[in-house]
Structures are given as structure tokens and as C-alpha cells.
Amino acid sequence: RDNSFWISDVDSDFVYHFYSNGTNDTSNGFNTAASGAADIWGIAFDSRDNSFWIIDDVDNFVYHFYSNGTNDTNNGFDTTDAGAADAYGIAFDSRDNSFWISEIVDDFVYHFASNGTNMTSDGFNIGNAGAVSSYGITIDTRDNSFWINNYAGFVYHFDSSGTNLTDGFDTTGAGASGILGIAINPSDYSFWINDDTDNFVYHFTQPSI
Fold first, then answer.
1. Taking Cα atoms as reference points, which of 167, 175, 168 lies closest to residue 203?
2. Which residues are within 8 A (CB) of 190 and not within 5 positions of it... i.e. 6 or more apart?
3. SS3 letters for 118-187?
4. Which end of the chain is more exposed for a tag (fewer CB within 10 A), N or C?
5. Separation between Cα atoms, residue 200 and residue 5, nearest integer Å
């Protein structure tokens, strides 16, 4: 809407709002702990109502928050029964309002329907490609592929069927050696990547596909 950023912080249980120039918008942002989301990691934006889907790793639960920070208790869903007991990354798929969630123990991407049902025929392994400890996932709408980052500083590219396209890229040379979150910019398909070691958001251009 305004080319700004919403960033979840696990230490403060707070969702911060930053303008495109990096200024913190202190009039927005919200705390999630009071709603039970006290260990938040991945965050995904839902353009249908400008709301957020946020993963809590302790609860193994995906919470739904409105833009004013209110917890939508009628939605949200547990990921444990599907096997996603250490889920960190989440991407919202606007084609069918479903979710793609990366799990760091079994190195697997799960696909959940909008009602929280695990779509077992669609998930795929990413560990065999080397994408272990993958904390972030984002969807490239040009071909519905996935860009998934592992913590050590590499961004992998998988097609919609889960095949590694081998055109990923390393981020450590730029200083991003502990990356947690990744988001794609739909205007130029570049990446915004959050680094945990220096608390910095890096901007990377994307390899052509």
C-alpha cells in the first residue's frame, strides 16, 4: 500500500512498522503477547483485509491479527498435528488464500488450506537441497515459485512442485550471515531480507528467471 515493512520481533513480541526509508512508525505496530503469541517468528500479509498471519513457535500456532493489532480468535490454526512442530516461515498464497510454512527440524515446506487443513499432497522436502534451518519463505507470483532462506546466509529457489532450481544466491558477502525473514517486492521482484546478527534489513536484486 505504501511500500512499508512490518517486522516481527521475537524478543519483544512486537510487530514493528517501518516506512520505506527505515523510519519506525511508532503510531502503528502492536504487541502480540497478550493474545498468547509470545514467541513470534514468521509474518505474512493478507491483502484481502490488510491483516497479518503470524507464527508462534512455542504454541505451534498461526495467529491472525487485524491491522490494528486485534487478535482474530475466529481464525488461526495449530500446525502440530500436521507434523510442523517447529514452524518459522510463512507465506500467504493469494491464489487460494492458503499458506506455505517452512519447518526447521524436518526441513519441509507444508501447505495449509485457509481453514488450517494440511494439504498433504503439496508439501515438499527442502533439506535434501541444503536448505536446512530455513526461517523465511516468500512466493514469486511470476511463476508461483518459492524463495526460501536458510539462517547461514543462502537463498534457495524452488519451483511450485518443490524442485530446487539451483539459481539461489549467497548473502554473506553483503554481510547478511544470519538471515531470518525474506519478502519479495512485487514491483521489481527484488528481495528485502532481515538479518538477525546485525538487526539490519538488506535489499537484494533478484536473479532473472
1. 175
2. 184, 203, 204, 205, 206
3. ECCCCCEECHHHCCCCEEEEEEECCCCEEEEEECCCEEEEECCCCCECCCCEECHHHCCCCEEEEEEECC
4. N
5. 13
CB 13 within 8 A of CB 33: yes
Give the DSSP letter string of 72-134.
-TTS-EE-GGGT-SSEEEEEEETTTTEEEEEETTTTEEEEE-TTS-B-TTT-EE-GGGT--SE
Q: List per-residue pLDDT tens for the chain, 209 residues long.
A: 688 999 999 999 999 999 999 999 999 999 999 999 999 999 999 999 999 999 999 999 999 999 999 999 999 999 998 989 899 999 999 999 999 999 999 999 999 999 999 999 999 999 999 999 999 999 999 999 999 999 999 999 999 999 999 999 999 999 999 999 999 998 899 999 999 999 999 999 977 65
155 neighbors 191 (Cβ within 8 angstroms): yes
3-state SS, residue 35: helix
22: left (phi over 0), alpha (psi -120 to 50) or beta: left
Under 8 Å between Cβ of 191 and 148: no
Query: φ, ψ for residue 24 (rounded to 5)?
Result: -75, 120
* CA atoms lying within 13 Å on the CB side of residue 85: 4
Rg (CA), the chain: 16
Q: What is the pTM of this model?
A: 0.94
